[in-house]
Amino acid sequence: MNVYGLGLLGAGISMLVIFEMLRRRRLREKYAVVWVLVAVAIAVLAIFPDVLTWLADITGVQVPANLLFFGASLVLLTANVQLSSEVSRLEDKVRTLAETIGLERLDRLEHEGRCAALLQRPDAAPAGTAPAASAEPRDERPERR
Amino acid sequence: MPALNEEASIGGVLAELALCEPPVDVLVVDDGSSDNTAGAARDAGAPVVQFPFNLGVGGAMRAGYRYALAHGYRSVVQVDGDGQHDASYIGALVAALGEADVVVGARFAGEGAYSAGRGPRRWAMVMLSAVLSRLAGTRLTDTTSGFRAAGPRAIELFAEHYPAEYLGDTVETLVIAIRSGCTVRQLPVAMRPRAGGRASQSPVRAAIYLCRAVVALGMALVRPQKVRPE
Fold it and tell me: What is the strand order of the sheet B2-3 is part of?
């Protein structure tokens, strides 16, 4: 197998894997786009290697393969930075969620405590008729503030 | 009160706060402790916000300020759960809120015995207080103190922006407050030695601390300004 065949094979396998992951919902489209573009670029370079030589000529790179490596590492670097920023954003969301869960849990406990206190008051209905007792919002004490 | 694995000490700290004059409402934020901190705090009668996992001091503080904002509190005092902060200063901190939005309980300002050690850790402290004092237009000697009080404007601000980054809970919040137009003052306080031993003083760690402090302060200064509607 020559080097172009290898490139084509790599591009083809990448495309297949991405397609399969999309199909199984393991990858969201917004992330798939970049990798499909990369695979297409690899395929183009494999079929028309002259494109690479031409690009190396205008950029003044003596060995075309070096231009390829340079471009590839830039693409990978960009992808990594993008993912790091995505993770940071997610961490921020998770933090806000965890805070909210903690606050909501406290709210619920306090609410349950107030309900229990209401039900246990002597003038309230016996515990057996809980729905009737809790259906009297006017009975509730004013918010402490 | 942010608390992380303070099961042993939190009951005593809460008992001390209950004797506080004027009386205060306490909210404990359990930052994902692996021990029974939340249970111990509930047994002592304090409401507890419990996180499902550890978020860092910044997360605990922001949740506390969100609670204060939602329940209409006009002043908030941050107190550590390890008993390091003396509750008898709370009244003075809150009283000082009359002329400032944020009041920092400072360890080096005359009262109490506390030294920052020497070497890089000390340089970091000196650098932080020099820069922040200049920004705040007042002398701030202990910028990493976690014993501080916040008034209504600061509560609103911190409920929205309380960074979880390294040193974000102390240094960066001061920068955020100052840049948003809040006034910051300090009040001398004595602090008790920490129950769990001192922070590491190895020179390498101190140097890393200095670098991180420089980065944290620098980033805080160049972050996009959080504009507050007046």
Answer: B2-3, B28-30, B48-50
Alpha helices, H only, B36-119: 37-43, 57-70, 90-96
Q: How many domains is chain B partitioned into structurally? A: 1
Q: Does B47 touch chain A (CB under 8 A)?
A: yes
Count: domains in chain A: 2
* A32 and A72 fall within a common domain: no
Residues A69 and A112 in one domain: yes
Question: Nearest C-alpha of chain B: how many angstroms from A10?
Answer: 41
Instruction: Indicate if A31 and A82 belong to the same structural domain.
Output: no
Q: How many CB pairs under 8 A join A and B?
A: 40
pLDDT single digits (tens) B62-71: 999 999 999 9
Task: Indicate the pLDDT class of residue A138, thresholds 50, 70 and 90.
Answer: very low
B73 touches chain A (CB under 8 A): no
pLDDT tens, A26-46? 888 888 888 888 889 888 888
Q: By residue range, what is the domain housing residue A36?
A: 1-47
Q: Is residue B150 part of a domain?
A: yes
Model confidence, pTM: 0.79
Give the residue on B whose Cα is nearest the Cα of A110: B47
Please give the order of strands across the beta sheet that includes B102-106: B76-78, B148-150, B102-106, B184-188
Q: Among partner residues B47, B52, B53, which is closest to A110 by beta-carbon distance?
A: B47
Provide ipTM, 2 decimals: 0.82
